[in-house]
Amino acid sequence: MNTITGTDISRAARFLKEGHLVAIPTETVYGLAGNALNEDAVLNIFRTKNRPAFDPLIVHVSGVKEADKYAINIPDVAYELMKNFWPGPLTILLQKKQIIPDLVTSGLSTVALRMPDHRMTLALLEQLDFPLAAPSANPFGYISPTTAGHVADQLSGKIHYILDGGACRVGIESTIIGFENNRCIVYRLGGMDIDKILQIAGDVQVAESGNPLPNAPGMLASHYAPSRPVYFGDLNQLMKKWQSANAAFLCFTGKGFDFPPGSNVYTLSPQGNLDEAAKHLFTALRDFDKSDAEFLLAEKFPDKGLGKAINDRLMRASARE
Ligand code: TXA
Ligand code: MG
To answer: Is the CB of 226 under 6 A from ligand 1?
Structure first.
C-alpha cells in the first residue's frame, strides 16, 4: 500500500468514509483513526498496531453534544469538565450506548470519549457523520508519534493517508479520567494537569499504576519503550552507577550535571518549563532509539504539573517487562 502524507482534509475524510485508516494530528500525539462505528475499520486498527484486543480504544468526537450520542448516565461533573476542558487533552470514561461496538471498548461497559484540540482534526470530524476510534499511531508498546514523520517511520505502507498537522503542541497523551460512585478517578496521567481537574471536580483520586487490567488504561508496566535500556531516577546517582563512554542522557534543564564530553544529551527545557519538556519528550526518546548510544540515563522530573505525566512515561519506558 502506498501511504500518502498531506494536508488534504477532504481526502482524509474520503478514505475514512471508505472504511480505511488515516493517521490524524491532535494536540497530544498522532492517532491511528478509523470509523468507530465500523467493526472492520476497528479490527484493522488493532491489526495495524499489533494491539491486543483487550486494550480498548478512545473515541474522538467533535463536541460536547456528541457525547450524548454515544454515552448515557453522564454525571453532571463530567459535563462541567467537558465544558471547561474540551477541546483538550482530557479523555472521559462514560457508560457506553449500544451504538459503540464492543470491539472498540474491548467488551467494557464504558467508552472513552475525547474532543481533540487540533484545527485540522476538528474540521475533519465535521465532514464525517461518525466518530473516530484512534489509539496513538505507533506499534503497540512503542513511543507515541508527535510528528507526521514519526508516524511514517513506522506505519508507512500500512495505512492510506497521514494528515500532516505539524508537531503536536502538548506532546504527551491525554489524561484519562472516569467516575466511581461519583468520585473522579484518574486512570492515566497525561497532558491535562490534574490540579485543573481538581478545581472543577472538587475531589480527584489517582488510580494505582502498574495494573495491566483493561480498566486501568495505559497502565501496562512496560510501554513507550525504546529498544535499548532506559534507567530512570536521580541522575547524579545513575551517572555513578552506570558508566559508559557511550551513554546518552535525558534531563530537564541540563543545569547542575557534568556530562562526559561528546555524549548525547537531550535537554527537554533549558528554561525549566514542564509543558515544553512534555512536548519534547517523545522526540528525544525516538532520537535516542535511532542513535548508537548503549543506554539512556533519564532524570526524574519535578513531581508537579506535567512533570507527573513525564515521570510516568519515563518509568514505563524504563520497565523491561
Ligand atoms: O492523547 C491521546 O489520548 C491519544 C490521541 C490519539 O487521542 N490517544 C491515545 O490512545 O493515547 P491509546 O490507545 O494509545 O491509549 C488509550 C488508553 C489505552 O491505554 C486504553 O486502555 C484506555 O485508553 N481506554 C480506552 N477505552 C477505555 C475504557 N473504556 N476503559 C478503560 N480504559 C480505556
Ligand atoms: Mg498508546
So the answer is: no
